[in-house]
Design a protein that fits this description.
The structure holds two protein chains of two kinds.
Chain A lengths: L9 H8 L15 H6 L4 H25 L8 H23 L1 H7 L1 H4 L5 H9 L6 H31 L1 E2 L2 E2 L3 H5 L6 H4 L1 H18 L8
Antiparallel strand pairs in A: 1-2
Helix pairs in contact in A: 1-8, 3-4, 3-7, 3-8, 4-5, 4-7, 8-11
Chain B lengths: L5 H45 L10 H8 E7 L5 E2 L9 H4 L9 E8 L2 E11 L4 E8 L6 E8 L13 H4 L18 E3 L9 E3 L5 H17 L1 H5 L1
Parallel strand pairs in B: 7-8
Antiparallel strand pairs in B: 1-2, 1-3, 3-4, 4-5, 5-6
Helix pairs in contact in B: 1-2
The chains are: A mainly alpha, B alpha+beta.
């Protein structure tokens, strides 16, 4: 990248938009599945989780990118882990101080952001070889790409599993009176995996170039 | 300096760790007061919610709490008042680990129209971590007026449902002593089976957490038996 390239050049914009669809960390790279299953029973925690991961991956990308020429290659994974773990603790502390309710809902999953493969994946694959600004955009893009899938899965699970969205009842009472009932199965993790599978299926069907050869 | 050499690698790791540690300590220390305040306010909101005063705004919780909770004290297992201990500051997570006769048992009294309601904190183990709550009893010290529960990390949609009204509401009107005055606690049964006056419905899919609530109520309420019989 030349130094004169504008901040939002087509090339840089692609860093943000790519992971939203064609290069989505969950749908295409199949990273970060574990937390996508765990926090998607309801919409609100899914959104906070998405924002937290976006913040962590963006800033970790920037920090690693700034350090990239100094990190001894033999301990680079450890350095990445220390940076990520540090950021996650900061996010956890900030949530506890300013968004106490949400931090309680997310509980252990905030800490588990450390183990989210997307973050380590982006640090290793992108931040180590790119400038801070590009790394930042890449982090934002991947965080959002992760986030939209989380929100999509959570939307269906909360709607079908509890009949609510953001905790508000959206399925009218007359449906229940007519014999409709919430599907408890949707709340369990296996249905998250199946929902995710359906989303990937639809996505592949619309993007034929992503379908593997054999 | 050789960037791949051992000296550089060790130095790099040491400096990095010290820097990160310093940053984290700074963040933790500067956010600590807000976090402690959040926890205190949440406890006040919980205590109020157990006597059905819900939706207290965080910034008003302290004022309303001080107005409505007229008396707090700590008793021991014999039902005698323990002097010099602030009921609000009793850390239940430490108390439930002690032997029953060594425990400090906090009681909060809420007075409405001249009638007392007794609020008793409970704490136990769920499936993944601690669960806790507050139970309020009418002035017969037998009939439950209200109950609220909360948890640290129960499965959302399953065990975590103990924090929902649907689980908590049926506690109202249940009795913790049977006709002959014997302590029987309130049992948490399988969903649909908790129909008598001493039991409530558990959560389907949240069996371990439901059992945790059951054990918690038995353990904590039984330690108040002497106090409640007075």
């Amino acid at each position: 990248m030349s130094a004169k390239e504008p901040l939002f050049s087509a090339n840089n914009r692609k860093l943000v938009t790519g992971p939203l669809s064609k290069n989505n960390p969950i749908m295409v790279q199949v990273l970060g599945i574990c937390s996508a299953l765990a926090v998607t029973a309801k919409l609100e925690p899914a959104i906070v989780m998405a924002l937290s991961v976006t913040a962590v991956v963006a800033f970790a990308n920037v920090i690693i990118s700034l350090l990239r020429n100094t990190i001894p290659s033999r301990i680079r994974i450890i350095v990445q882990l220390v940076v990520v773990a540090g950021l996650v603790i900061v996010v956890d502390q900030v949530l506890k101080a300013f968004a106490y309710d949400v931090s309680k809902q997310l509980s252990v999953f905030v800490g588990l952001i450390i183990t989210n493969c997307i973050i380590m994946g982006r640090l290793e694959a992108f931040a180590l070889g790119n400038t801070p600004w590009r790394s930042f955009l890449d982090g934002i893009g991947n965080g959002l790409g992760y986030g939209i899938i989380l929100v999509a899965v959570a939307f269906f699970r909360e709607l079908l599993g509890a009949g609510t969205l953001f905790g508000y009842k959206v399925i009218p009472q007359c449906f229940y009176d007519a014999g409709y009932s919430d599907s408890g199965l949707m709340v369990l993790s296996p249905m998250a995996l199946i929902t995710l599978g359906v989303i990937i299926w639809v996505h592949r069907a619309r993007n034929k170039d992503l379908i593997e050869e054999n | 300096m050789n960037k791949q050499g051992n000296t550089y690698t060790f130095l790099y790791a040491a400096i990095l760790v010290v820097v990160v540690a310093a940053v984290l300590s700074f963040v933790a220390l500067s956010l600590k007061p807000m976090q402690t305040k959040n926890i205190k306010i949440e406890k006040m909101q919980n205590i109020l919610a157990s006597v059905k005063i819900n939706d207290v705004e965080a910034n008003e919780a302290e004022k309303i709490y001080n107005k409505l909770i007229t008396k707090t004290f700590v008793v021991n297992v014999k039902g005698e008042v323990v002097e010099g201990v602030n009921a609000f500051d009793v850390d239940l997570s430490k108390e439930v680990k002690k032997k029953v006769d060594k425990r400090n048992l906090p009681v909060f009294i809420y007075t409405k129209d001249g009638v007392n309601k007794y609020i008793i904190p409970v704490r136990g183990k769920g499936l993944w971590g601690p669960i806790w709550g507050f139970i309020s009893l009418n002035d017969d010290k037998n009939t439950v007026y209200g109950a609220i529960f909360d948890h640290q990390g129960e499965t959302p949609g399953l065990g975590a449902e103990i924090a929902n009204e649907a689980f908590q509401k049926p506690f109202s009107g249940k009795q913790i002593h049977n006709e002959s005055g014997k302590f029987v606690s309130i049992e948490v049964h399988k969903a649909g089976k908790g129909t008598d006056i001493h039991s409530v419905d558990g959560i389907s899919g949240g069996t371990m957490t439901s059992k945790g609530v059951d054990a918690m109520l038995k353990d904590c309420l039984s330690s108040y038996e002497a106090f409640l019989k007075k």
